[in-house]
């Protein structure tokens, strides 16, 4: 029987909880990260953007060189109700296991240490979060 899967990744432990991840490469204005490997990024349906990226990685990739105008930056709200500005830069995400490249944007804010794939990323994919088997499965379109 033909498989319709294009890639799968085992869940990863974050704060003693198994969470779904997808392996990606980020292409920014100065190159590709992390090179030959893939960066395992948590899938978070509570984040409505494309890619939330740590402030440190945003700087390392020199994404300020591809930042969008400030009037296109989003405003986020923390769980505690605190407002913060999300810097936004154009980038390309590659999902090499699926031979897929997606144009999108990376966002960050002061002090952010997380990398998250959000709803805008998921809009382009057919994905199964297989909780019992603790696997993220990417399907053919």
Provide a descriptive summary of the structure in words.
With 141 residues, this protein is mainly beta. It has one domain: Acid Proteases (Cathepsin D, subunit A, domain 1, Beta Barrel), CATH 2.40.70. It is 7% helix and 48% strand. It is built from 2 helices and 13 strands; from the N terminus they run βββββββαββββαββ. It has helices at residues 55-60, 119-122, and strands at residues 5-10, 12-14, 17-19, 21-28, 31-33, 39-43, 51-52, 74-77, 83-95, 100-108, 116-117, 126-130, 135-139. The strands form 3 sheets. Strands 4-6-11-7-10-9 form a 6-stranded mixed barrel. A 3-stranded antiparallel β-sheet has the order 1-13-12, with no helix packed on it. A two-stranded antiparallel sheet has the order 2-3. A hairpin with a 5-residue loop joins strand 8 and strand 9 (83-95). The chain is globular, with a radius of gyration of 15 Å. The model has no long low-confidence stretch (mean pLDDT 91).
Q: What would a concise description of this structure say?
A:
The chain has two helices and 13 strands; from the N terminus they run E-E-E-E-E-E-E-H-E-E-E-E-H-E-E. It is mainly beta and 141 residues long. The protein has a single domain, classed as Beta Barrel (Cathepsin D, subunit A, domain 1).
């Amino acid at each position: 029987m033909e498989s319709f899967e294009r890639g799968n990744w085992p869940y990863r432990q974050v704060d003693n909880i198994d969470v779904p991840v997808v392996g990606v490469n980020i292409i920014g204005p100065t190159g590709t990260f992390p090179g030959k490997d893939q960066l395992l990024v948590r899938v978070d349906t509570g984040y409505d953007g494309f890619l939330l990226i740590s402030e440190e990685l945003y700087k390392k990739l020199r994404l300020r060189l591809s930042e969008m105008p400030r009037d296109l930056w989003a405003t986020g709200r923390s769980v505690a109700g605190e407002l913060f500005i999300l810097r936004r830069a154009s980038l390309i995400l590659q999902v090499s296991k699926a031979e897929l490249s997606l144009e999108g944007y990376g966002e960050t804010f002061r002090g952010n240490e997380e990398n998250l794939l959000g709803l805008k990323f998921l809009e382009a994919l057919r994905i199964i979060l297989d909780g019992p088997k603790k696997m993220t499965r990417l399907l053919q379109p």
